[in-house]
């Protein structure tokens, strides 16, 4: 990610680092333990609910979460 940021700075007239920081944070969220997603969603209001729900669905599928776990996390985030 850092290589991409540095490379884009040579082509873009504005500083792209702050904008790519949002992307980097989203990517890093994929690697969180399942118990941290509700807290992460609460702390990162820069993402829409649909973006966060999409992330949770992706993580749940890729990491093989139980259906009940996925639904519980989604319900807690929806209630935020």
From TrEMBL:
Pfam families, per database record: Syndetin_C
InterPro entries: Syndetin_C, VPS50
GO cellular component: cytosol; EARP complex
GO molecular function, one term: SNARE binding
Residue intervals of the Syndetin C-terminal domain: 2-78
GO terms of biological process kind: endocytic recycling; retrograde transport, endosome to Golgi
Protein name: Syndetin C-terminal domain-containing protein
Naturally occurring in which organism (per UniProt): Aquilegia coerulea
């Amino acid at each position: 990610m850092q290589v991409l940021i540095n490379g884009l700075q040579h082509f873009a007239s504005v500083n792209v680092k702050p904008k790519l920081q949002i992307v980097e944070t989203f990517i890093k969220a994929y690697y969180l333990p399942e118990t941290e997603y509700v807290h992460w969603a609460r702390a990162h209001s820069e993402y829409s609910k649909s973006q966060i729900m999409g992330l949770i669905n992706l993580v749940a599928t890729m990491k093989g979460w139980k259906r009940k776990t996925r639904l519980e996390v989604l319900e807690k985030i929806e209630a935020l």
